[in-house]
């Protein structure tokens, strides 16, 4: 088994598609409309992942954007979805630990 990390390659693919920025949008959602909100988010091409969270924030939405104006447009689209009550957007400045599975695979292979 190789020690090379298993990565998504997302950063390179995103940049090749002209989307240089990654941002994380947290959202509070009317729980009665969660399915509707999820479907609407899936309809936005720049939304690349959505996670349901516990705690004060309901959703973590990972988006990609071409530039700041594009990010503003995308954040506005998300905020306009019926059932979204509030959003906060944080721009990813740098990827410090890329998506990886190798450490988990190695641990599993070792029987831990």
UniProtKB/TrEMBL annotation:
Residues 26-95 form the Transcription regulator AsnC/Lrp ligand binding domain. It comes from the Bacteria. InterPro entries: Dimeric_a/b-barrel, Tscrpt_reg_AsnC/Lrp_C. This is Transcription regulator AsnC/Lrp ligand binding domain-containing protein.
């Amino acid at each position: 088994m190789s020690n090379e990390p298993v990565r998504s390659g997302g950063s390179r693919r995103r940049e090749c598609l002209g989307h240089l920025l990654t941002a994380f949008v947290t959202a509070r959602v009317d729980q009665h409309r969660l399915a509707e909100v999820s479907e609407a988010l899936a309809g936005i091409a720049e939304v690349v992942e959505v996670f349901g969270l516990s705690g004060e924030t309901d959703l973590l939405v990972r988006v990609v954007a071409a530039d700041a104006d594009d990010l503003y447009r995308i954040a506005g689209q998300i905020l306009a979805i019926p059932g979204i009550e509030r959003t906060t957007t944080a721009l990813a400045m740098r990827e410090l630990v890329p998506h990886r599975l190798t450490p988990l695979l190695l641990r599993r292979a070792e029987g831990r």
